[in-house]
């Protein structure tokens, strides 16, 4: 994963084989890198805002280390009044943001491979989801030197997203999967 490659969006009809392709690629990449796992994110719920998406990605990327990394790489300090929830320098409660993730990714020496399946369930099928998806893909584009991002999304959802947020297509490489 050396260098920079724009985020990839795999589109295609439902049941065309997104997951099967990602399974094979993940297995090959893990074997090639000496067992370094490819992070697979498969949403189990819909996320309504940036804080929820960024929080999910932080937990997926770093697990229990996430809060400590946020304190290390951003201007966030723990607050006892929030039960340990992060707060900003003014003492107010603070949630995760794409900027927090970006600062941590840029501050660490590691490179990652992340597959995010069914982007439409993760972001698009919520109020304001197209705008949120565009911001998420912009974040992916800005962190492309640290993470090789691969997203899968159905054709109708991709068409909706690029109609609603036309410049989104310029942030990513689009690869269409066709049935055999």
Q: Secondary structure elements and their pairing?
A:
Elements: E1 8-12, H1 18-32, E2 39-41, H2 50-62, H3 66-73, E3 77-78, E4 86-87, H4 98-107, E5 112-116, H5 119-124, H6 129-142, E6 147-154, H7 155-164, E7 173-177
Parallel strand pairs: 1-6, 1-7, 2-5, 5-6
Antiparallel strand pairs: 3-4
Helix pairs in contact: 3-4
Write a structural description:
This protein is of the alpha/beta class and 180 residues long. It is built from 7 helices and 7 strands, in the order βαβααββαβααβαβ. It has helices at residues 18-32, 50-62, 66-73, 98-107, 119-124, 129-142, 155-164, and strands at residues 8-12, 39-41, 77-78, 86-87, 112-116, 147-154, 173-177. The strands form 2 sheets. The protein has a 5-stranded parallel beta sheet, with helices on both faces. Strands 3-4 form a two-stranded antiparallel sheet. Strand 3 and strand 4 (86-87) form a beta hairpin. Helix 3 (66-73) crosses helix 4 (98-107).
Order of helices and strands: EHEHHEEHEHHEHE
Low-confidence stretches: 79-93
Question: Beta fraction of the residues?
Answer: 15-25%
Total count of strands: 7
Number of helices: 7
> What is the helix content?
40-55%
| Global structural class | alpha/beta
Spatial order of strands in the largest sheet: 2-5-6-1-7
Task: Give the C-alpha Rg.
Answer: 17 Å
Q: What spatial form do the alpha-carbon principal axes imply?
A: globular
Measured distance between first and last alpha carbons: 28 Å
Mean pLDDT: 82
Main sheet makeup: 5 strands, parallel
């Amino acid at each position: 994963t050396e260098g920079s490659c724009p985020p990839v969006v795999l589109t295609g009809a439902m049941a065309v084989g997104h997951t099967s392709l990602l399974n094979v690629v993940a297995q090959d990449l893990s074997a090639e890198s000496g067992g370094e796992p490819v992070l697979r994110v498969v949403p189990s719920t819909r996320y309504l805002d940036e804080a929820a998406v960024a929080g999910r990605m932080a937990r997926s990327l770093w697990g229990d280390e996430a809060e400590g990394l946020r304190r290390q790489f951003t201007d966030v300090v723990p607050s006892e009044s929030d039960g340990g929830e992060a707060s900003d320098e003014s003492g107010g409660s603070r949630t995760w943001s794409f900027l927090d993730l970006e600062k941590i990714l840029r501050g660490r020496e590691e490179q990652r491979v992340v597959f995010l399946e069914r982007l439409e369930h993760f972001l698009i099928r919520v109020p304001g989801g197209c705008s949120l998806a565009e911001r998420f893909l912009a974040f992916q584009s800005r962190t492309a030197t640290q993470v090789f991002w691969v997203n899968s999304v159905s054709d109708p959802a991709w068409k909706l997203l690029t109609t609603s947020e036309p410049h989104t297509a310029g942030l990513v490489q689009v690869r269409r999967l066709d049935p055999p």
